[in-house]
Structures are given as C-alpha cells and as structure tokens.
Amino acid sequence: MEETIHLEQVLPEKIEERSFAIIGEELEQMGIHLKPDEELIVKRAIHTTADFDYAANLVFSPDAPSLGIQALKEGAVIVTDTNMAWSGINKRKAESLGCQVVCFMADEEVARAAKEQGCTRAAASMEKAARLFGGVQTAADDDRRDGKPSNDTENQKKPPVIVAVGNAPTALVKLYQLIEEGRFHPALIIGVPVGFVNVVQSKEWIISRTDVPYIVARGRKGGSNVAAAIVNALLYQTSPGR
Amino acid sequence: MEETIHLEQVLPEKIEERSFAIIGEELEQMGIHLKPDEELIVKRAIHTTADFDYAANLVFSPDAPSLGIQALKEGAVIVTDTNMAWSGINKRKAESLGCQVVCFMADEEVARAAKEQGCTRAAASMEKAARLFGGVQTAADDDRRDGKPSNDTENQKKPPVIVAVGNAPTALVKLYQLIEEGRFHPALIIGVPVGFVNVVQSKEWIISRTDVPYIVARGRKGGSNVAAAIVNALLYQTSPGR
After folding, report:
1. Which residue of A34, A87, A117, B68 has the fewest CB atoms within a 10 Å radius of its CB?
2. Under DSSP, is residue A188 helix (H, G, I), strand (E, B) or coil?
3. How much is the pLDDT for A241?
4. A63 to chain B nearest CA, in Å?
5. Which of residues 23-62 of B touch A (CB under 8 A)?
6. Could you report the per-residue pLDDT of B124-176, keeping only the tens digit for each?
7. Predicted TM-score (pTM) above 0.95
C-alpha cells in the first residue's frame, strides 16, 4: 500500500498548522469569509469534526469571542456537561491562566439530585454549578451599577464562569431557567449539544436571550469534541503558546 | 421563549431511545437500509454527531462487529489514541466484562519516545500498546493452527486487543507497520481519525488489509467521540444492561 497511497510528509508539530491552512483554503474556495474574531473558533470546530457545516451553523452573540477570552484571562471557571469535553480541554493552558475546569457528571450528589428531581444528571450538574459559582457579576454589570459598591463576598471573589455544553440539551434548558431566576450569570455559554430530542429548541432558547453572551451551534450538530474545541480556541487566543 | 419554542416531553431515561427512533425513521425516509450487524454501530455514530454521513462512510470488514463483540466478551484490552475517546467509553460496562480501557497519550515514556523518534505521541503510544499487548493470536488464528499446541505465555494469557483511533492518522499508519512487521495483531481496529493531513490515506491503508478486522470511517470525518460511540455500540451488544 505504501506505493499506491501517498502520504503527505508533514512534521508532527506542523500537522495542525497544515490542517488549518487546508481549512482556510477550502473555506475560501467555498466563498466563505469568516469574521476575524470568530475565525479561529470556527476553524477549530471544523478541524475537530472535518465538517464544514460549522462555518454556517456557529452563531455568536455580539463580542462573544472577546468576552470569552477576557473571562479566561480573569481565571474563569469552565464548567462542562461531559467528562469527554473536560478531557478535550487543554488543562495545562487553562491552569496557566488560573482557570479551573470542572465537570459534575460523575458527582454523587448530582446523581442523587437528578434521581430525586426526575431530571437528567446534566441538568442537576448545572444546578450545582449555579450554587457553587453563581451570582457572579460581569464587568458589564459592574459598569451598569454606576460605581455602586458591590458586595465583596457575593460579587467580587467569585471568578467568571464559562459553561460549555456539548451533549445535553437539558443542561441548556436548565441554564436558561437559572438565568431567568437570576441565580446564574455565566460570562459565556458555549451551547453545542448534539442530537435529536430538544437539541434544536434548547439552542434557540439560548439564542433568544440578550443578556448572556453565547456561542451556539444552531441545529442538531455539536458534541463534546466541539465544545472542547471552542474552549481551546478561546484559550489559545489569550496568549501565545500552548 | 417557553411559549414560542415547544419542548418535546421525554423522560430522561427515554431520551436515547427516542433519539434512536428518530434516526431510524430518517434513515428509512432516506431509503437507507443498514445491515443488521452494523445497524447499532452506525446509528450510535449518527447519534453522537447528528451527522448522517456516517451511514455512508462507515465501512466494515467481514464480520467486524461480531468479532469485536466476541473480543469484548473475552475481556479485551481497548486501546485509544486520545483521553477524550477513553473518557467517552462506558468503563462500567467494559469492566463488567473484564475489559481494560487504556490510553497512553499522557504517558511520560511515550512522550520521550515520540521526541526521540520524531514521531507523534499517538504513533509512539501504538508502539507501547504493541509491546505490552502485542503478539496476540485471535480465535481465528487458533483455528488455522489446526490444534497445534500454542505457547502459553505468548498466545494464551494475553487478552485480545481492540484499538480505537479517533484522532491521529499517524496512529493508524503506525498500526499498519506494526501489523506488517508481525508485532501486533489486534482483534479489531476502529479507525476513525478525523482531519485533513493523511487521514483519508491512513484509513485506506487499513481498509487495504485483509488480515485484520476493521471498522473505518472512510474520508475525513471521525473523531474521539465517534471512536467511543463505536466501542460503546459493541459493548452494549455483549449483553443487556449498561
């Protein structure tokens, strides 16, 4: 086979660079021009799936990428809804920024709460995240409060939160409710659950909000790998190096 | 939004069942009829990606699903090329069968070997897997040896190996070489790396072999999530229950 199927010779450390170049070339051939602040996110989603649909289905609230990057620079807590997404996030890079990456899907308390409430563990894990990390004020909120002194324990000590949902639409629906109830105010929601039951709807719920920044993969597609790729794309834009 | 976007009411424990029913209906509408032994694998790949391309691009060597299920029942070692794929595999189910799930991507020795050899860590991790688990004879090999007594330490004590590659084509290329050199004989290769550099070619190399069972996602698509989904689809067919 070595003779009939030709391998491209690329050094290990150059494979990703070459991949991104190919993605860029093909997007250009398709006549697709990405916005500068969204470009590396969209390309990384395509890189992780080989699916160019993400050039069309990823939708961003205004300034979502820069707000996400800012939150990471402030040492955000990154909450995922799957251990797979957790695994896919570059923890070394996250930790270098003081960011913590957490997933409560294997948490005993979450399993118990889900059983008691008849909800999914993913939904219960969002409840837990809101309880631990909720009540956070964003920089924008602080501005709106016009210098009114904030409550130190409530608003100052907690880091911003980025929630990355790659699997469970029930997690997005729960997030919507928690925000509605004023119990959670993530700095960014990455809403890319995948699937066939309430996935499309849950994403439209998040897109309908004007008070929370989001990056959403409209439609059925998404996944834990896409969630991790988007987080990594933001992480890699905080500073050079991995 | 609750009023304008309607959520389908499905109990948490019924979401997957409902998803598979939708996938089945849509495949039928597309006029796609899956082979019985491949059906649950293809549907789970679609379930994890919402991408119906997998109905066309997943290719199977003869009896690959049943050989994979047999290997799992015999307590196979499952080797993955990413921690994400490792995370996505149902370890409880695997362990209930005596199967071990391993990934060497974070292994110090592998990192060192990759650096020394100028290869990817994924390729070096396949070397390590071959060293630890290689030289295995399959049931088919035993039959071919016509009752010739086998060497206990070499052939009998080592479990069969399933290699699930969801990310790195370099891992597949290395696997091809290890098999060629007689150093590794996996019971099944799940070859679903994703991407743009040598991904298509590495899969065709595996497909060209007639001596190793494979399940391959032809083309560029695949991923750690797809690799895990295929392993889980096989695991769930070994016996009822998760």
Report:
1. A117
2. strand
3. 84
4. 23
5. 23, 47-51
6. 999 999 999 996 444 444 444 444 444 444 445 789 999 999 999 999 999 99
7. no
